[in-house]
Structure formats: C-alpha cells, structure tokens
Amino acid sequence: MDRANVEQCRDEQTQVEPGRAMSILVIEDDPKTGDYLKKGLKESGYVVDLARTGTDGLHMALEHPYELVILDVMLPGLDGWEVMRALRAKRDLPVIFLTARDHVNDRIHGLQLGADDYLVKPFSFTELVLRVRMLLRRGVVREADFFEFADLKLDVLRRKVTRQGVDIVLTNKEFMLLHLLVKRQGEALSRMQIASEVWDMNFDSDTNVVDVAVKRLRAKVDQPFEKKLIHTVRSIGYTFGDGA
C-alpha cells in the first residue's frame, strides 16, 4: 500500500470528521483484497469490519449500524446482487460496488438495485477513499433513475425516453433538458435556471438558446401526441406536467 496515499487519506478523513471514526463494512471473499481494504481503510481513519461471504455480510449489515458498505459481486453464499437487493429492502445506507465485473450492463444493474457508486477492479485505493469520503459527507441522497408521468417514461441510466411505448430519440442536451423538467415537474423553471443547469452558462436575455431547445424538444415529445406535457409559463419560463 502506498504510505503517502494512506497518510493523505487519513489526514483528509480527520478534517471531514474530527474526533469521530466512521464505520465501514467490507464484503469481499478474496483474502488478499479483503485484507488490503481493511488495513488501508483503518489506516485512513475508519473502523472497518470484513465479511468473507454474502450471507455473513448481509447479516452483519442488518445487525450493526454501519455508515457505508463496500460490496463485491462474486461472493459465496449470496452474491452481491442478492445482498444489495435484500439490504435495500431493510436499510438505506451508502453502498459502493467494488468488482471485476466491468460490463456496462453490470454497472447499470448495480445502480438500478440501489448502489450509490460502482468501482471496477483493479482500482486506485486513493480514488476509493475519495469516493467513500464523498458518500459519507453527502449521506444518502439518491436521485430517482426512472420517471413516469402520464404516458411518458424516462430511464435516466439507459438514457431512454418513450411515450405510449414509442421510442423518442433525443440529443444529449435535449435529454438533459427533459430530465430537468421531469424531475422538477410542477415547478415553473426560469430560463436562467434552465440555462444554468443544462448548459452550465449564465443566462443572457439576448440569447434564445433555451427557447430554441424547448421548441425542438416539444416537436419530439409533445407534437406527435394529443396530451401536451411541456408548458410555457408567461414571463418566467417553462414547466412540465398537466398544465401551466
């Protein structure tokens, strides 16, 4: 283990949670990886328990007040998917999948089951600790990854949109715009808010980029269908829902 990285991580952990050691459960069957994680996380300032099987890990996660779980997928007994599913039915705490399974469908499946992060082996220990720190500082604040309103369905992870079962092909910015409108449904969003969140830009009153984008989005999402979901709010901007 890189001593400089461990010292840096320990110093940063102390700054975030002075005087308090936060508890982590590692569920990992590979002896070398499990011992490596336990040793490194302890040296970074955490209290760490290690489970070698999915069955033991799930039992420990449900019986003890851990603040974060690091979970492998390929485990004896219950696999990581089963542990994640059972854990989410009982508790809501941050979970990081740490696994050699790097296919995009595995990553999507893990996040859909409720994981907060997904890191592929081989991994950087420093990166892992930074992700642990971020999740522990943030707590459990999980955005929905699937929205359904009227006959519209929006799958955030697969970046897929349908209405009445018909696929709607959107550009990246159009998808970001629709996602913003849908997740803030019922709110009147100003053009400034939209420009800031979708284009990461300060709004210029002489720029019609938002209006042009909304017009294009409406042509795909609303125009072919009887029920209109994107509405103009006079003198403000736009809203998504049954009506302005």
CATH H-level superfamily title of the largest domain: Response regulator
Strand elements, count: 12
SSE pattern, N- to C-terminal: HEHEHEHEHEHEEEEHEHHEE
State Rg: 22 Å
Please name the CATH architecture of the largest domain.
Answer: 3-Layer(aba) Sandwich
Distance between the termini: 58 Å
Query: What's the rounded overall pLDDT mean?
Result: 86
The neighbouring-strand order within the major sheet is 2-1-3-4-5
Number of domains: 2
Helical residue percent band: 40-55%
What general outline do the C-alpha atoms trace?
elongated
The major β-sheet equals: 5 strands, parallel
Strand content: 15-25%
CATH topology of the largest domain: Rossmann fold
| Low-confidence spans | 1-19
Domain OmpR/PhoB-type: 144-242
Keywords: Cadmium, DNA-binding, Phosphoprotein, Transcription, Transcription regulation, Two-component regulatory system, Zinc
GO molecular function: phosphorelay response regulator activity; transcription cis-regulatory region binding
Modified residues (4-aspartylphosphate): 72
Which features would summarize this protein structure in a list?
single chain, 244 residues, alpha/beta, Rossmann fold, Arc Repressor Mutant, subunit A, 2 domains, five-stranded parallel beta sheet, 9 helices, 12 strands, 43% helix, elongated, Sig_transdc_resp-reg_receiver, cadmium
How is this structure best described in words?
- With 244 residues, the chain is an alpha/beta fold.
- It has two domains: 3-138, Rossmann fold (3-Layer(aba) Sandwich), CATH 3.40.50; 146-240, Winged helix-like DNA-binding domain superfamily/Winged helix DNA-binding domain (Arc Repressor Mutant, subunit A, Orthogonal Bundle), CATH 1.10.10.
- The protein contains nine helices and twelve strands.
- The strands form three sheets. It has a five-stranded parallel beta sheet with strand order 2-1-3-4-5, with helices on both faces.
- A hairpin with a 2-residue loop joins strand 6 and strand 7.
- Residues 1-19 have low confidence and may be disordered.
